[in-house]
Amino acid sequence: MDLNALSDELGGYEVEVMAACEVLEQAGVGFRVSGFGLDDWRLDVEYDCSIFMENLPDLLDALARKEEHVFFFASQGVEVVLAFVPVDESVVINCSSLVARAPSPVVETTARADLVSMLERFAVDFGVALTRVSPPLASEEPFRSWAEGRLGSDL
Description:
Helix 2 packs across helix 3 and helix 3 packs antiparallel against helix 4. The two termini are about 25 Å apart. Strands 1-2-3-4 form a 4-stranded antiparallel β-sheet. The longest helix is centred in the C-terminal third of the chain and has 22 residues. It is globular and about 40 Å long. By secondary structure, the protein is of the alpha+beta class. The chain is built from 6 helices and 4 strands; from the N terminus they run H-H-H-E-E-E-E-H-H-H. It has one domain.
């Protein structure tokens, strides 16, 4: 991965996340998503987790503002659009598949606070895992803060 070329095209955060996910994938770290009728979506770290982590700050920001957020898992065979729709203190998550497998159920609802807590815990776990496999990369922000449980506005 040519990080210098990517830095010219993307922001620093996205490039750092791509590098972190590549290192985590090579170390054998897993990325598991479940729901909508599947216990394991069979996603990988280098591609799927990278896309997820690149979008995590926007998702958390939208949840804090109680605004809708749409996320697309683009992996071949998965190709799912998740629409997060805050309703009072809950979040309705609509799952639309762009491939043959139809999600069942197509809608799941969770408490907004529980979803935010789960997403923030994921960021902490991501930072801790990165600390274990690549201390130099983990010393970069925001990974260092995440590993320490500090999830400020930069997440």
